[in-house]
Amino acid sequence: MGSFFMDFKMKILMSTMLLWFASSALAINTKTLAFGEAYSKLFGHHNIHRSANDRHVRLLLDRSSGSGFISSDMYQYGLFSASIKLPSDYTAGVVVAFYTSNGDVFEKTHDELDFEFLGNIRGKEWRVQTNIYGNGSTSRGREERYFMPFDPTKEFHRYSILWTNETIIFYIDQTPIREVRRTEAMGGDYPSKPMSLYATIWDASNWATSGGKYKVNYKYSPFTSEFRDLSLVGCRVDPIQMLPTSSNNCTAANSDLMATGFSAMTPQKRKAMRTFRENFMSYSACYDTLRYPEKLPECEIVESEKRRFKENGHLKFHHHRRQRSSRARFPTATDRRQLVM
């Protein structure tokens, strides 16, 4: 009986979160772009399908290849946003990524901000992971992982990365789920060089599901991820000179960025972020004292979060079922770059 009521309580919480997502979506204030206006194909060209109006893109993974696209320009700070629907059915080993990076330009000192959506075996929820790398700091990855509070395969949800010179905020719909504020102690670990936007789907059988225990099963392919409402707001940068392409030195771009409202962390937003994190976060580098005996400089330890995690940074319990104790290997930038070389 106790388990029934706890499950019921979780359903009420999820319903509340979904109502917040739905009502907040009305506040989106970003201009969307057609694919040809701002993006180009990256790899797996035959598995990239564009709609007739060029505003809806499908990325496929099958036995022959994954696929991905990249922004035509690099950006010095900005808001990167898309509505995404993930593959359904058995998706173990499949990773859909929506991220910014400059690894092709700064191979050893690259910056990166990631949403990585991790597939699972049938009946298990999708998870989403956020990563932050600065100046090639892959050995100090700042990963967090969350259970999805809805089925991301049934309908589109908006995922956004806000990146300014002071703060990084990850959003699901209009709910912030993670904020990293720049500190002096972070030094070069804070991403600060121009980046491109990427969207990819690929085979990550060696790590993505239970540390590689479950592989991609191509019997269920093609795996299809869908992207629409693509939005880029930021200062465009010349990829050769690494200077703004406009003469106003990003003033107008920064004004446009502030006008979206994503940078304003209101009390309501902070409350929604705390609710999300306390109920859906399943791993945080901030609470992984085995990996980081000395706290990462930007981490703000929240006691209501901390008591839910083991010393390896993983959740003690999820929906009242004990988590597996084994630690999954997190992906590196090298894993992703191997796909397009």
TrEMBL record:
It is found in: Secreted, Cell wall; Secreted, Extracellular space, Apoplast. It holds the Pfam family Glyco_hydro_16. It comes from the Eukaryota. GO terms for molecular function: hydrolase activity, hydrolyzing O-glycosyl compounds; xyloglucan:xyloglucosyl transferase activity. Its EC number is 2.4.1.207. InterPro entries: Beta-glucanase-like, Beta-glucanase/XTH, ConA-like_dom_sf, XET_C, XTH. It is an enzyme of class 2 (transferase). Keywords: Apoplast, Cell wall, Cell wall biogenesis/degradation, Disulfide bond, Glycosidase, Hydrolase, Secreted, Signal, Transferase. Residues 314-341 are annotated as: Disordered. GO terms for biological process: cell wall biogenesis; cell wall organization; xyloglucan metabolic process. Contains at least one intrachain disulfide bond essential for its enzymatic activity. The active site is at 112 (nucleophile), 116 (proton donor). Residues 1-227 form the GH16 domain. Residues 315-327 have a biased composition (Basic residues). Residues 1-27 form the signal peptide. One of its GO terms (cellular component) is apoplast. Belongs to the glycosyl hydrolase 16 family. Catalyzes xyloglucan endohydrolysis (XEH) and/or endotransglycosylation (XET). Cleaves and religates xyloglucan polymers, an essential constituent of the primary cell wall, and thereby participates in cell wall construction of growing tissues. This is Xyloglucan endotransglucosylase/hydrolase. It comes from Rhynchospora tenuis.
